[in-house]
Amino acid sequence: MSQDAQNRAITSYQYRHVPEDKVAEFVKRETTYWSKVAEKAAANKTMTFWALLEKVGGYDMPNSSNFLFINTYPNIDSTESIWSSAESVAGVKMDQMETGSMSTTTSQFFAHDENWVQDAKAIPEKDFNYVVMIYHNSRYPDSLIGLEKKYWGPFIKKAMDDNQTPQMAWGNAVVLAPLAEDVKFNTVSFDLYKSLGDALMPNWNSKTVFPNKGLTMIGNIESNPRGMSVYRVVKVVSAN
């Protein structure tokens, strides 16, 4: 039953653009009020994960997203109760906590989390500070996920445990919707790091042996070059 519930969980990736002069208030409201709503939902088991990430750098910044929400729901059809009670949970009126009027949702995707490994020594609250989001497009997304699970997951787990890389965790997910010709990715993977420098230029041990066979197979079924963005972890609420 527990495994079945996990298999049905769906994660929402919501990208927002917040004007520069609204960023401070936006972050304040999200971390002060909406994180409380997420904590309540996690306690009620209607949400298992809530995160606010802020993009580091970018291009066409006035017209593109600079924040990303990642929310995981055990039952995507039972989310209304989370938001309908937001005022009572946060303890303030909606006009004091809402962030919709100071941001624009640029896109939203629904995905299913597939794989996750982390450094055995990792302390998430201390070590998960930056996330490199890597966007893959493949003719065979399920096969790509499977190849990453078979080749990359065990490799990066051992490399992290053996201090061959500064990376602290890795995971991936398959996109459920929307899927269309103009959507340039259908799976996503995420690398977590302690520092921005490590995220931008990870330093591998010279003796590291990469799973080249698996990497070649993955590359052969990718349809176009990968996209990549770096985010700073602003706030996380997790039921785990």
Explain the overall architecture.
This protein has an 8-stranded antiparallel barrel. The chain has helices at residues 2-8, 23-43, 80-84, 86-90, 94-97, 124-127, 141-161, 196-200, 212-221, and strands at 10-17, 49-55, 67-73, 104-118, 130-136, 169-177, 187-193, 227-238. The two termini are 18 Å apart. By secondary structure, the chain is an alpha+beta fold. The protein is globular. Helices cover 34% and strands 30% of the residues.
- Give the beta-strand count: 8
Give the amount of beta strand, in percent.
25-35%
- Main sheet specs: 8 strands, antiparallel, barrel
Molecular shape: globular
Mean of residue pLDDT values: 95
Which helices and strands appear, and what pairs or packs with what?
Elements: H1 2-8, E1 10-17, H2 23-43, E2 49-55, E3 67-73, H3 80-84, H4 86-90, H5 94-97, E4 104-118, H6 124-127, E5 130-136, H7 141-161, E6 169-177, E7 187-193, H8 196-200, H9 212-221, E8 227-238
Antiparallel strand pairs: 1-3, 1-4, 2-3, 2-8, 4-6, 5-7, 5-8, 6-7
Helix pairs in contact: 7-9
